[in-house]
Specification:
By secondary structure, this protein is an alpha/beta fold. It has helices at residues 15-23, 65-77, 94-105, 135-148, 165-169, 209-221, 241-249, 263-278, 309-316, 329-337, 341-344, 349-359; strands spanning 26-27, 32-33, 40-45, 50-57, 84-91, 122-127, 153-157, 176-178, 181-183, 185-187, 190-194, 230-234, 254-259, 283-294, 301-302, 321-327.
């Protein structure tokens, strides 16, 4: 390639147009354009329409560098007159990383999270009374369905002991840490955070109440979630420490209760619903999972786990029944291979119903009954 120079203007290539193209490239982890994040280094124009762009990565081992190279190459390659794009990679200095971390925190006081009063993010706490009802699988696919509908979506895997979000999304890498700020792991258009990104699959998490509370607090406050439309919380089963911590940290979160048709699952899920009602936590609704077993050969549906559990739970906690998701082979297989069914088999009966539920998720506000109202003194 011919030597490049910042001053040289390649025939037909406008430097301002190249910078404008770079402004349209977003870092998938930061949710900022490359110029906003300070990631654009030297931009040089050469002979014959050649352009060389240096991208400054947040870390030399940035897991998204191949995607960034591809996105920059595509964006700059569309500029009139550009015949060839070369992308060089460099790492930010410690000072640049520190300034970026400060920018990501913004004016928010340290130790606070962005989902409090005044936040436009809808927060849904996906809960069940017992394990094994497919709560995490529903959370993962619901998140992808919302993202496919154009929303910015995050999933916080708060099921500390039984974390499964990394498996369901097929990601195993640790998040990037940026001077006290963690960047969520991005997969299938969803921002993810889980204890599972920090420990080996075989390693048990032996934490008690205070450690659990601190971990959840850090996942809310120290993670750069960006501008989310919806945050889904995958809660552990039951009404233990994690659930109580989230009620304290996110008082405006809406409960999404998951059950199977079985009486046993519905009965224990009702306890979670009653706990939410007692704490004046808004309840968005109930989803009945594994409502029927779909035969892969003939599409015949069998009520393998009984019938009516979702409707009974909805009646018990005075909430709407949002949908009944069947159990089919594509949904089960997708969880095993680490690709959500909404991506792998979007036309499967399970994916179709989850997509419908995502499109009709209600927004329920916390009642002011029992809360102190602000008083003005004249």
């Amino acid at each position: 390639m011919s030597p490049l120079s910042r001053r040289r203007t390649g025939p037909g290539v406008d430097l301002d147009s190249v910078h404008a193209a770079l402004a349209g490239v977003e870092d998938p982890e930061l949710g900022l354009s490359l110029p906003e994040a300070g990631m654009v280094g030297a931009v040089e124009l050469g002979r014959g329409g050649a352009v060389h762009v240096t991208v400054r990565l947040t870390t030399p081992t940035c897991p998204m560098k191949e995607r960034l190279v591809a996105d920059v190459t595509e964006a700059v390659g569309r500029v009139p007159g550009v015949a060839r794009v070369e992308v060089g990679l460099a790492a930010m200095s410690d000072g640049e990383r520190l300034r970026l971390a400060g920018r990501l925190r913004g004016a928010r006081p340290e130790g606070t999270h962005p989902f409090g009063d005044g936040s436009s993010t809808r927060v849904y706490a996906v809960a069940s009374g017992k394990g094994g009802v497919g709560k995490s699988s529903l959370t993962a696919n619901l998140a992808v369905a919302l993202a496919q509908q154009g929303q910015r979506v995050g999933v916080l895997d708060a099921d500390v002991w039984g974390y499964s979000i990394p498996q369901l999304f097929g990601v195993r890498r640790a998040p990037v840490a940026l001077k006290g700020v963690m960047l969520p792991v991005e997969a299938h258009g969803v921002a993810l955070m889980s204890v599972g990104f920090f420990v080996d699959d075989e390693e048990p998490v032996v934490w008690r109440g205070p450690m659990l509370h601190k971990a959840i607090e850090q996942f809310l406050a120290d993670v750069h979630w960006g501008r989310l439309d919806t945050l889904l919380l995958d809660l552990p089963p039951g009404t233990g420490d994690v659930t109580m911590s989230l009620l304290e940290l996110l008082p405006d979160a809406q409960l999404l209760a998951v059950t199977t048709p079985q009486l046993a699952a519905q009965t224990v899920a009702a306890r979670v619903g009653r706990m939410a009602r007692d704490a004046r936590m808004p309840v968005a609704g109930v989803v009945e999972n594994m409502s029927t077993l779909v035969c892969p050969a003939c599409a015949h549906e069998t009520p393998l786990f009984g019938e009516g559990g979702g409707a009974r739970l909805a009646d018990a906690i005075s909430a709407p029944l949002l949908g009944r998701v069947p159990l089919d082979l594509p949904l089960r297989t997708a969880g095993d291979v680490g690709v959500p069914a909404m991506v792998a088999t979007p036309t499967a009966p399970s994916a179709t119903e989850i997509r419908r539920i995502a499109g009709e998720l209600p927004v329920v506000r916390r009642s002011l009954v029992g809360r102190a109202l602000p008083l003005s003194v004249v």
